[in-house]
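Annual report, structural modelling task.

Input specification for the pantoate complex:
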Amino acid sequence: MTQVIRTAAELREKVAAWKRSGMLVGVVPTMGALHDGHLSLARAAREQSDRVIVTVFVNPMQFNNPADLEKYPRDEAHDLALLEAEGVDVLFAPGVDEVYPDGFATTVSITGITEPLEGAFRPGHFDGVATVCSKLFGMTQAGRAFFGEKDWQQLQVVQRLVRDLNIPVRIIGCPTIREADGLAMSSRNVRLSDAHRAIAPRLHEVMQGAAARIREGLPAEAALNDARAALAEAGFGAIDYLELRTVEGLRPAADLSEPVRMLAALWLGDVRLIDNIAV
Ligand code: PAF
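The model returned the following structure:
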């Protein structure tokens, strides 16, 4: 039975009791509208911890676009049913006032790694992520926290956060889970029209093709330019970025002299998709 907890005080009591019995607590922070990607994180948490908390909180502070916040899918009853089936111990679903009570005045802001890519297109986004993750780590007191590699930059940001602030939680990155046709799972996918859903898997296909050509020796910029053209041809809208970056530090990369990832963000109608792959 998954217990739904809405206050930090109640959660703290529960976690304190677990810890007194020597249990290791794992947390999976989410914004709900759960899919198999989230459930794979819950499974990893189950395997690597004695007790599992999944947090569901649509964090207003990380949305730079109010319409995106408004349209963000929410279905707590469905989320709870999925978590029950995974044997998750607690669904922590605080209200906005619980996380940001009157007078809340703290922002956790990380420089450097937050600036390119998502940071450049979603000003303030990572301040919101870093602030809410700091709060969720404090509220849950978990020893391990599980994040998807789909949000590669977010994973790097959270790792930086816990190192810089000595937060006693180990961050575990877990592989991106994809639909059978290659589309990376995302809560936003439900907002794609049928026509756009049919186009969406081309993103992963085109990225893989470009990565293969770079590995074969084509200069990265040429491969990326061809990929941008192929995406436009497939029917995608504006491409916010399609870039090669170093795995560590997300510095711009022009070749494979160190481990790199290809990262993309682009639009299909009013839905913004992001993806990344190892090159
Ligand atoms: O990846 C997400 O769903 C969110 O950014 C997170 C980590 C739950 C913080 O709100």
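The longest helix spans residues 125-140.
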